[in-house]
Design goal:
The protein has 302 residues and is α/β, with parallel strands linked by helices. The protein has eleven helices and ten strands. The protein has a domain of 155 residues. The longest helix has 15 residues. Bound molecules: S-adenosylmethionine.
């Protein structure tokens, strides 16, 4: 049996997985401790929105969509601790379960592993492919069903994985809440290069090139406020009203007029922020109360 050696640098494979399999013999994604913060906010939202979801779940009408599902398990490299992915956690909502779950991932190794980890359940559809291409058929089929609630977990590695058009497709569904990983680190690293070009990964991710002129001459500490504001305006154009995007309780937001929560690495550097987009003000009210807590149980300042 291979021994996991997490002191090696850059030993992940191209799927971002550890070269050594998990305890169940299947691939595990290599993550930092901060991944637990992401799951904290995801689960806190799924728990807090349980009552609102129940009226749909009771009628078989609650749908979960995971566009970047991974293999179903991760390994925290510093602790060598195996933890469940976001999608697997969504599957465990016993109080108001999702009745139908869609999991997409580009990697065959991941989808094969995930299918086994969800025990081939009939209500779990695990599909290998590019979410940006798969989403339109998914939405067309979901539109055939009447009065359903949808929650999408959108957790790409970076902006190159996700196109805004994909969110636009999802937005065709009436009751569509999306928890979106907005990558800060990856954008920061590439911004100087993307500023000089057109039709870049960032243009596709934001669905517009307007950000280029908006950040011109702006201090670097303001840039992400602007980029997230552009993202917010884009979400508004696809049917997400101000009240479904704006923080409900009074308070400051570190990045923009969007209720984001930031996930940081061990050096306290922002890696990404999580954004909740909903067409319903209640969802935002719930999210706004959740992000007042930090994963270690302390109140945050915003
Ligand atoms: C950050 S990881 C997902 C982690 C997962 N959500 C979890 O909770 O553990 C990103 C995943 O997206 C997949 N991926 C990257 N580009 C993709 C695409 N265009 N369509 C579908 N999956 C993609 C990768 O294979 C990887 O498994």
């Amino acid at each position: 049996m291979s021994v996991r050696d997490c002191s090696k640098k850059n030993c992940k494979n191209e799927e971002g997985n550890c070269p050594v399999m998990g305890e169940d013999g299947l691939p595990v994604q290599c993550v930092g401790t901060w991944a637990e913060d992401k799951y904290f906010f995801l689960e806190a939202y799924l728990n807090a929105s349980c009552e609102a979801r129940r009226k749909f779940a009771d009628k078989n009408n609650a749908v979960f969509i995971d566009l970047f599902a991974g293999s179903g398990k991760c390994i925290i490299r510093s602790e060598k601790k195996e933890i469940l992915s976001g999608g697997m956690r969504a599957l465990q909502r016993d109080k108001a379960p999702f009745n139908e779950l869609f999991f997409f991932d580009l990697s065959k190794a991941n989808t094969e592993a995930l299918l086994k980890r969800v025990n081939n359940k009939d209500n779990c559809h695990v599909i290998c492919g590019d979410s940006n291409a798969l989403v339109s058929n998914l939405v067309s089929s979901l539109l055939q069903k009447y009065y359903r609630y949808h929650f999408a977990f959108i957790d790409p590695f970076g902006p190159d994985n996700l196109k805004f058009n994909t969110l636009k497709e999802l937005a065709r569904l009436d009751r569509m809440d999306m928890l979106i990983h907005f990558p800060i680190g990856a954008i920061k690293r590439n911004l100087p290069n993307w500023k000089k070009k057109t039709n870049t990964i960032l243009d596709d991710f934001l669905g517009t090139g307007i950000w280029r002129s908006k950040i011109e001459g702006v201090f670097s500490n303001q840039i992400f406020k602007i980029l997230i504001d552009v993202f917010k305006e884009q979400l508004k154009t696809v049917g997400y009203p101000e009240e479904g995007l704006k923080i409900v309780s009074s308070g400051k937001d570190i990045y923009a007029g969007l209720p984001t929560v930031s996930v940081k690495n061990t050096k306290d550097v922002d890696l990404y922020v999580l954004i909740l987009a909903s067409k319903h003000p209640l969802a935002q009210k719930i999210w706004s109360s959740i992000i007042k807590m930090s994963p270690n149980g302390q109140k945050t300042f915003f």
